[in-house]
Amino acid sequence: MRAEGGPRVIITVTPNPAIDRTLEVSALRLGEVNRSASRQVEPSGKGVNVTRALLRNGIRSTAVLPLGGPEGSQLAGLLDDEDVPYVALPITGPVRVNISVRSPGGIVTKINEPGPTLTWADAETLADGVLGVVGRGDWVVGSGALPGGVAADFYAELVTRVRQAGARFALDSSGEALRRGLEAWPDLVKPNRDELAELVGTPLRTLGEVIAAAETVRERAGGVVLVSLGTDGGVLVDGDGPVLHAELAVGTVRSSVGAGDNFLAGYLSTAAQARVDRRDSAGRAGALREAVAWGSVAVRSEGSLGRRVGDADRRSVRMHTAPDPDRRLS
User: Fold this and answer.
1) What pLDDT digit, counting tens, does each position of 242-296 carry?
2) pLDDT, position 302
3) Is 285 strand, coil or helix?
4) Spatial distance between the Cα atoms of 60 and 9, rounded to a whole number of angstroms
5) How far apart are CA 281 and CA 311, in angstroms?
6) For the whole model, what pTM was predicted?
7) DSSP type of residue 148
């Protein structure tokens, strides 16, 4: 554990990391041979994406993840090539490989492998790896679905242990892992629109419905609810200030892969480093502005990692302190 008072770090834990292969085609024809015009290979998994985005923008971050098989060795090499600090848990099963096929118009068809099965001991070692590098005042990001063999309460248990260590926890998962994780009251939860709809059990067609659902989740779990809405921007609900909505006209979408991870990284880049007070309207708006700026840069870039975010990106974000509840979502 880092000594108290040292520089703050955002630590990500990715129980089911991946190698992402992105292929670009002129058209995707099912049942036929499709030839790729280009290929891009990247280290991936939601937490890994968060760490890479933070590092790209000069924010300290360390990734904690399991690595196994030839694919695990390749993933480690990709992380080394990008100078990504990481803590690796050796496992016997191979890391998964995800295939993204990008066709004209920014349409991405993604095929994700299920990943390896971890043992109970593997999951404990993964949690211990997080606690071995966390310091007081740090943020830990629990990100992505859980692989086979890992109990649904993994994130919930980790939230408790991280907070006992004096750090804060952001949860970005789905399904049962997300529902169980909320029981531990993480400091922040970042659902997308579909994940939020699943949590409250109803479709979300308008901005008002999203806000109401986010407020329901906040009442259930406490903390900050940060909702990513794709081309509709993002919403921040925390109970200590007005609901905020921010958006940016994206234009041409190159890839939506990793956009939500960049969105979360952008928020934490401000909230974690500046210790945003939720009652500070300027600080809250600045963190949401950063989230939307980072997410929009990502979708305008190839692959899962955008370029470094600039002031022009931030100035392009439109902030709404009185969101229109009747606005239909795209």
Assistant:
1) 999 999 877 666 666 678 999 999 999 998 765 544 444 558 899 999 999 999 8
2) 66
3) helix
4) 5
5) 20
6) 0.92
7) B
Strand partners, 103: 107
Rounded to whole angstroms, the Cα distance separating 23 from 230 reads: 22
Residues marked as catalytic: 261
- pLDDT on residue 103: 85
The gap from C-alpha 328 to its chain's centroid, in whole angstroms, comes to 25
CA nearest neighbour of 102 among 25, 157, 165, 206 = 25
Instruction: Tell me the CA distances in angstroms from 273 to 12, 132, 159, 199, 320, one per residue in order.
Output: 15, 21, 20, 29, 24
CB 85 within 8 A of CB 109: no
> What whole-number distance in Å separates Cα of residue 8 and Cα of residue 307?
23
Closest CA to 202 of 189, 190, 212, 191: 212
Tokens 């960049």: give the residue.
Answer: 262
Dihedral sign for Cα 268, 299, 204, 103, please.
negative
Q: What is the pLDDT of residues 190-237, one digit of tens each?
A: 999 999 999 999 999 999 999 999 999 999 998 999 999 988 999 999
Give the three-state DSSP class for 128. Answer: helix
Among 222, 242, 221, 220, residue whose Cα is nearest residue 288? 242
Instruction: Look up tokens 């939601």; give the residue.
Output: 46
Kindly tell me the burial class for residue 75, based on how many C-beta atoms sit within 10 Å of its own C-beta (0-12, 13-18, 19 or more). buried
DSSP tag of 318 = E
**The residue count for the chain:** 330
